[in-house]
Amino acid sequence: MTAAEPLALIGDIGGTNCRLALTPASPTERPQISDIRTYRCADHPTFEDAVAAFLGETGARVGAAVIAVAGPVSGGAVAMTNHPWRITERGLSGRLGGAACRLINDFEALAHALPALGEGDVLPLGETPAPGGRYTLAVMGAGTGFGTAALVRDGDGQAVLVAEGGHSGFSPGDATEVDIWKRLAARFPAGYVQVEHLLSGPGLVHIHRALCEIEGETPGFETPHAITDAADAGDQRALAVIDRFVRIFGAVAGDIALAQGARGGVFLAGGVSQRILSAERAGAFRARFEAKGEFSPYLVAIPTQLITHPQPGLLGAACALKNLRASEARS
Q1: What's the Cα-to-Cα distance from 143 to each of 14, 37, 75, 179, 196, rounded to whole Å?
Q2: Pairing status of strand 265-269 against strand 158-163
Q3: Under 8 Å between Cβ of 179 and 210
Q4: Domains in the chain: how many in total?
Q5: How far is Cα 317 from Cα 178, in angstroms, rounded to an integer?
Q6: How far apart are the first and last CA of the chain?
Q7: Residue 263: phi, psi to the nearest 5?
Q8: How far apart are CA 274 and CA 230, in angstroms?
């Protein structure tokens, strides 16, 4: 990108980190991303403060912005699910001197990114077919929370389906998970146990505590990082948490694939997903993914892949900008 080239601001905001970058304002086949900066959300009172820091560091002047945010977007505004920031398109536009701004859900951005991912951007989980060209693709993932979306395709066109699958009810798959469900139901309002209560960073801790209660043991880990680090070191209690997490993830991914008709493939994203899922754990994941009774053959034919691209949210925001520009050109 040259200094004279029109630029757009793109962002990927989670419950912990805010990633900002630049991309050409004119659509390209595979968007270019530059000047990537990461800010801790807790270090800035508002999102606009983080934007001001970014613009001050880069000296960039931008004419448009697409920001992917962890939370439901409504009426051009979002109150983040796992952080106090409230962001509006109008407020961001004012900070950027009247630039056209668009807020999208973070998993909506990931759905936009799926067609732009190359072979080096994903890790296949299990021996499965390559993603289909005309079928719907699903994306989901565990991080600070659990998000879902889909790229709905019918061969003639496509559209992004934004959902809140992480807040759907958790369905236990065996006796141990029934015991886990009972313990979590006693902790959460109205006894409602969400998928996100297990498949997320905090979910790792919830699973650990529940397993300890079942075994009559004292919990030994207070944070998700403590659990994953201990698992890497071979700690058996931590490995039991990881194993249970992977199996539950497989079951939930299979449910979502069925609900969304994601015959083209399921893509897994999120910091916790990337930390835990691996080729070595693909067998446990796929076993629960495919264990859907008479619909098992349907799931067997659906590929599952872990997104390993370093900045899929920013790529998705840039792809969403490209799609918006293309839509404006057609109208």
Answers
A1: 8, 19, 25, 24, 9
A2: unpaired
A3: yes
A4: 2
A5: 39
A6: 28
A7: -75, -15
A8: 17
**Tens digits of residue pLDDT in 122-164:** 999 987 766 666 899 999 999 888 999 999 998 788 899 988 8
Q: Does residue 323 belong to any structural domain of this protein?
A: no
User: Are 37 and 54 in contact, with CB atoms under 8 Å apart?
Assistant: yes
Backbone angles phi, psi at 180, to 5 degrees: -60, -45
Q: What pTM did the predictor assign?
A: 0.90
* Residue 65 and residue 134 share a domain: no
Residue for token pair 């300890």: 212
Residue written as token pair 């508002």: 46
Q: What is the pLDDT of residues 32-64, one digit of tens each?
A: 999 999 999 999 999 999 999 999 999 999 999
* Residue 301: how many other CB atoms lie within 10 Å: 12
Report the relative pairing of strands 137-142 and 146-153 from DSSP bridges.
Answer: antiparallel
| Residue numbers of the domain that contains 80 | 7-104
**Alpha helices (runs of H) in the chain, residue ranges in sequence order:** 47-58, 89-95, 106-113, 175-185, 201-215, 224-232, 236-260, 271-276, 282-290, 296-300, 312-330
Give the end of a domain, one of 50, 77, 104: 104
Percent of the chain scoring above 90 in pLDDT: 82
The first and second tokens of residue 3, run together, are 């200094």
Q: Which residue among 104, 136, 162 closes a domain?
A: 104
Residues 6+ apart with CB under 8 A from 274: 306, 307, 308
Distance, in Å, from the CA atom of 1 to the CA atom of 19, rounded to the nearest integer, reads 19
